[in-house]
Amino acid sequence: MHKILIVEDDSIIQDLVNATLGGDNRYTLLQAYDGHTGLEIAKKESPILILLDLDLPRLNGLNICRTLKSHPDYAHIYILILSAMTQENDIKAGLDAGANDYFIKPFSPLALLHRVDDILDGKSN
């Protein structure tokens, strides 16, 4: 079963993502509410996908991206940023930090589910 790490400090977004992805038990969902904990869980569990907010307490999402993508043991992890930061320079900064994709909040739960399924279908091939 694919492990997905959700690094998000907003409990409402955490609950929404959990309800969206956890409904049929296709994925093992891991959670972190701050950047430092998210990075530690990522290193310990090596999930196939991280859904990552940028604006986090203790360590921001850009630093998490850079740290994971610069290390050969974790560079394979697919990072999908979930952020309310919508400016072109914000998106560019996320992608430049190593994120594979950028998803803007608020988002449609169905669109997120389809995007995650597409990502993981591609990772399974």
Nutshell version of this structure?
By secondary structure, the protein is of the alpha/beta class. The protein is built from 5 helices and 5 strands.
How much of the sequence is in beta strands? Answer: 15-25%
Structural class, by secondary structure, is alpha/beta
Task: Give the SSE string.
Answer: EHEHEHEHEH
Calculate Rg over CA atoms: 13 Å
- The poorly predicted ranges are none
| Distance, first to last CA | 15 Å
Shape: globular
Structural summary, described in words:
This protein has 125 residues and is an alpha/beta fold. The protein has one domain: Rossmann fold. Helix content is 46%, strand content 21%. It is built from 5 helices and 5 strands, in the order βαβαβαβαβα. It has helices at 11-22, 35-45, 61-69, 88-96, 109-124; strands at residues 2-7, 27-32, 49-52, 78-83, 101-104. It has a 5-stranded parallel sheet, sandwiched between helices. Helix 1 (11-22) packs across helix 5 (109-124) and helix 2 (35-45) packs parallel to helix 3.
Describe the secondary-structure layout:
Blueprint lengths: L1 E6 L3 H12 L4 E6 L2 H11 L3 E4 L8 H9 L8 E6 L4 H9 L4 E4 L4 H16 L1
Helix pairs in contact: 1-5, 2-3
Q: Top keywords for this entry?
A:
125 residues, alpha/beta, Rossmann fold, 5 helices
